[in-house]
Each structure stands twice: as C-alpha cells, then as structure tokens.
Amino acid sequence: MNRTIRSRWGISILVLAAAVLLISPTRGYSQTEGTERRQDRRQNRDDARATRQEGRHTARDAKQECKDAGGNRIDCRQQKRETKQDARGAARDMKRGATGEAEK
Predict the structure, then answer these.
(1) CA distance 84 to 75
(2) Whole-structure pTM over 0.70, yes or no?
(3) What is the biggest distance separating any 2 CA atoms in the chain, rounded to whole angstroms?
C-alpha cells in the first residue's frame, strides 16, 4: 500500500513539474530586436545632428574666410547658406538612408 501511494505521489509530482515547465513562457527576444532598432535610429539621429553641427561650424569659418579675403558680403552669405544646405542634405541622407525613405 505504501509503495502504491508513494509511486502515485511521485508520478503526480513529475506530472505537475512537467506541466509547469511546459506552461511557463519561454524567453522572448522580440524586445531585444526592438531595442536594437531603436538604438540604431537613435544613433542615426545623433550622427545626423553631429553632421549638421559640423556643417554650421564649417559654414561660419567659410564665411569669415570669405570676409577676411575681401569678398562681397552677399557672396559670403550665399556661400555660408550653400555650405549649411549641403550639411543638412548629408544629415538627411544619413538619417533616412540614401533612398530618401525612412528605414523601417
């Protein structure tokens, strides 16, 4: 009698343990992939911001050099605008990719 009861208890415990293992959720990796995509987008934005900032500094320097060389004020201003626009375009391409569409 004791042997029968012990074996039933043993089987019940094994079945219960197996059920818990099968029912419990497995580790998911979807959050990791989403986190990586967000981190990639964040890095792209940071790189684009740095490119724009570098373009502003370059434009200021170019305008000052133009003025120091005795250039026309209007021409120096236009040169600065073009430099900044080029930097913005490079930042936009960097942020969205070369195709012009946002990466998904």
Answers:
(1) 14
(2) no
(3) 110
Query: Residue 92's closest CA among 104, 103, 79?
Result: 103
- For the ranges 4-13, 16-25, 50-59, 93-102, the maximum mean pLDDT occurs at 50-59
With 0-12 / 13-18 / 19 or more C-beta atoms within 10 angstroms meaning exposed / middle / buried, residue 69 is exposed
CB 96 within 8 A of CB 103: yes
d(CA 97, CA 103) in angstroms, rounded, equals 7
Q: How many residues does the chain have?
A: 104
Rounded CA separation 28/102 (Å): 27
Tokens of 53: 């900032």
The HSE-up count of residue 50 (CA atoms within 13 Å, CB side) is 7
Separation CA 58–CA 17 (nearest Å): 67
Task: Classify the phi-psi angles of 103: left when phi > 0, otherwise alpha if psi is within -120 to 50, otherwise beta.
Answer: beta
| pLDDT, tens digit, 9 for 90 and up, residues 59-74 | 999 999 999 999 888 9
